């Protein structure tokens, strides 16, 4: 499958991982919308949140958000998961955005 996040998670582009577990990588967004903009990405391919059938992975993704923000001393942040084109999803491999470092306004 030709999936950019599968390739990144596989190390094919030598992307720097700011955090990594057995099942998850975290790296910087290439087009940051704030001073800190990270992507939390499962190594296994799921097109979006609705596709995930693994409760342990769902828990691990959220734990990873906790762990990486703690590690980097990020106290105030927004998490975003876009599911579907209309919601703004552009990369169809599940990812959680962590956005921080500036005052964020309302959603939408
Ligand atoms: P989405 O709109 O699907 O929720 O978010 C996709 C995000 O992936 C966008 O913020 C975009 O900037 C980022 N992105 C797309 N391609 C790449 C890439 O090759 N490397 C990195 N680090 N981020 C990417
Ligand atoms: Zn993928």
Describe this structure in words.
The protein is of the alpha+beta class and 108 residues long. It has two helices and five strands. The chain has a single domain, classed as HIT-like (HIT family, subunit A, 2-Layer Sandwich). A five-stranded antiparallel β-sheet has the order 1-2-3-5-4, with helices on one face. The site of guanosine-5'-monophosphate has 11 residues, from strand 2. The site of zinc ion has 5 residues, from helix 1.
Determine the strand fraction and express it as a percent band. Answer: 15-25%
Residue stretches low in confidence (pLDDT < 50, at least 5 long) are: none
Overall residue-averaged pLDDT value:
97
Domain count, please report it: 1
Number of helices: 2
Distance between the termini: 32 Å
What are the distinct ligands in this entry? guanosine-5'-monophosphate, zinc ion
Strand order of the largest sheet: 1-2-3-5-4
> Radius of gyration, Cα only, in angstroms?
13 Å
Secondary-structure class? alpha+beta
Approximate shape: globular
Instruction: Output the CATH class name.
Output: Alpha Beta
N-to-C order of helices and strands: HEEEHEE
Q: CATH superfamily assignment?
A: HIT-like
CATH architectural designation: 2-Layer Sandwich
> Mind describing the biggest β-sheet?
5 strands, antiparallel
For this structure, the CATH topology is HIT family, subunit A
For the secondary structure, the number of strands is 5
């Amino acid at each position: 499958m030709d999936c950019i996040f599968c390739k990144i998670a596989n190390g094919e582009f030598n992307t720097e991982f700011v955090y990594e577990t057995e099942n998850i990588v975290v790296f910087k967004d290439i087009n940051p919308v704030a001073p800190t903009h990270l992507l939390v990405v499962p190594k296994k391919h799921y097109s979006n949140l609705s596709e995930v059938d693994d409760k342990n992975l769902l828990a691990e993704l959220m734990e990873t958000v906790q762990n990486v923000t703690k590690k980097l001393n990020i106290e105030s942040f927004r998490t975003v998961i876009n599911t579907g084109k209309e919601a703004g999803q552009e990369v169809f491999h599940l990812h959680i955005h962590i956005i921080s470092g500036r005052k964020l306004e309302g959603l939408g």
